Amino acid sequence: MDGFDLDNLMEQIQLLAGEWGLKVIGALAVVFIGRIIAGWLRGLTRKGLTRADFDPTLVPFLANLAFIALMTFVLISAAGLVGIPISSFVAVIGAAGLAVALAFQGTLSNFSSGVMLLTFRPFKVGDFVEVGGVSGTVKEIGVFVTTLTTPDNVQIVMPNTAISGDTIKNYSANATRRIDLVMGVGYGDDLNVAISTIREVLSEDSRVLDDPAPQVAVSELGDSSVNIVVRPWVNGTDYWPTRFDLTKELKERLEAAGCEIPFPQRDVHFFYENAPVEGSKSGPTAA
């Protein structure tokens, strides 16, 4: 063909191949080396978190998060080497991230709450807790939900946002717990006998701790009884068995000591509006 310069075309192709070939090779090299470094960083993160005694559920996620973050930076750098505008690339990633965040707002909120629970550890698996109006033993702490089992063996799955935004009562956090009982005796009973009897029952139970010492004291003059608070300390695992046994034993021993266990009652007095005059034969008129 007239005017067609094959030599010039080949020269242009060689120039373009040389220029773009170096860029592509450089980009591939960046990706290859970055992939190795990201894998090394993931392994280092996993080992470091494991040594720091992080929750096993959180370790793989954080390690993979470090890997993804570094690989994102590597891919952006490689794109810049081959001439792709980095600013446009970052804008696209940012817009996509914003759209995903808005779509999964509730899920991400649960996820962030799960990370906080796993990081700060207000409770652990096996603890008995009360949160969100529910009491139960913690069976699993996930990044999105936490699973509890109630004392009557009902499984409850709670979103982590409901836990992190509420007051958490952890009954298993401390090694010891105090039992709070109130024993009522009659107004005619000897308080010294009642108190000494209660102290004897506590001293005979091996589960009651000597330190802190149990507290036995008159707390209230009630409507039908004199109330005595009984506050022994026990190991956390002995709380409920000891509470049940002490309630039964205290009732029986107080009765055996001659103390009355009163029940609620009222004395009703009747008054007459027109009291009879002394010496009068007319009877009273009931109100």
Commentary on this structure:
By secondary structure, the protein is of the alpha+beta class. It has 7 helices and 10 strands. Strand 1 and strand 2 form a beta hairpin. Helix 1 (6-51) packs antiparallel against helix 2 (58-81). The longest helix has 46 residues, at 6-51.
**Beta-strand proportion:** 15-25%
Question: How many H/I helices?
Answer: 7
Order of SSEs? HHHHEEEEHEEEHEEEH
Helix content: 40-55%
Q: Which stretches are low in confidence, meaning pLDDT under 50 for 5 or more residues running?
A: none
Task: Provide the residue-averaged pLDDT.
Answer: 81
- Main sheet: strands, sense, barrel: 5 strands, antiparallel
Q: Give the terminus-to-terminus CA distance.
A: 135 Å
**Cα Rg:** 39 Å
Q: Strand order across the biggest sheet?
A: 4-3-2-1-5
Class computed from helices, strands and strand pairing: alpha+beta
Q: Write down the overall geometry.
A: elongated
Q: How many runs of DSSP E, i.e. beta strands?
A: 10
Task: Describe how the helices and strands are arranged.
Elements: H1 6-51, H2 58-81, H3 86-103, H4 105-120, E1 128-131, E2 134-141, E3 145-149, E4 155-159, H5 160-164, E5 168-170, E6 176-178, E7 181-185, H6 191-204, E8 215-221, E9 226-231, E10 233-235, H7 239-256
Antiparallel strand pairs: 1-2, 1-5, 2-3, 3-4, 6-10, 7-9, 8-9
Helix pairs in contact: 1-2, 6-7
